[in-house]
Amino acid sequence: MTAPQTETVGRTGQAEKARRRICKAVIACLDRFGYNETSLGRVQNEAGISRGALTHHFPTKEDMMVATLRQILEPVRFSGARTGRAAPVSRPMSVHAELVRLWTETVDTVEGRALFEILVAARTDSELESRIKPSLVEYNDELGVGVLAFYRSRGRNDDDDVRTLWTICRVFLRGLHVQERFGGDRQTIGLLMERFADLIAGEMAPREGNGNAQSVRD
Predict the structure, then answer these.
(1) Is residue 189 part of a domain?
(2) How many CA atoms lie within 13 A of 121 on its CB side?
(3) What domain range includes position 161?
(4) I need a labelling partner for 215 at 20 to 30 A (CA). Which of 2, 84, 85, 131 fits?
(5) Beta partners for 152?
(6) pLDDT in tens, 94-107
């Protein structure tokens, strides 16, 4: 690799690192302040960078949100979705355990709450909605493939039922964020999650041969 090429790669790597740092700051601000109060100024302070550096990478708030949403989704994308093959991992999978893990490790996290803020804001912000929709549609399609690779509907040979059940799971888990506002304490939320996982485990089961399959994430 020639010197100019090395310098270009280096600059690209530095730019990517800066963008990820900014997105991490956006996530923290969304979780702490909510979407409306996550301003360029707050993100700038959280990231510890100049306004010029911030707007160089993300000229508008919507630009930041689009990149942040992609960064949140990337670690939890189903890696086998495009091939339809499940990647093995060392731990066993059950529907109940997977749903509880999904809540504790993905949805009820800084990243999960930040994603929730973006999704709620997009309901009334048509510009934001139009910009994040392609990423969400692509992710949803991948998730559908992953779910079918891992799960079956009990008593049915119906892929649509599996997709429907997993969609219900995603709606419920995100809804727990709202339920907390009605006075539900952490213990109550945990009990709701456990009971819901019991109900879904009665409707859906791992496919044979996928007892050690990679987890599907929301």
Answers:
(1) yes
(2) 21
(3) 69-218
(4) 131
(5) 205
(6) 999 999 999 999 99
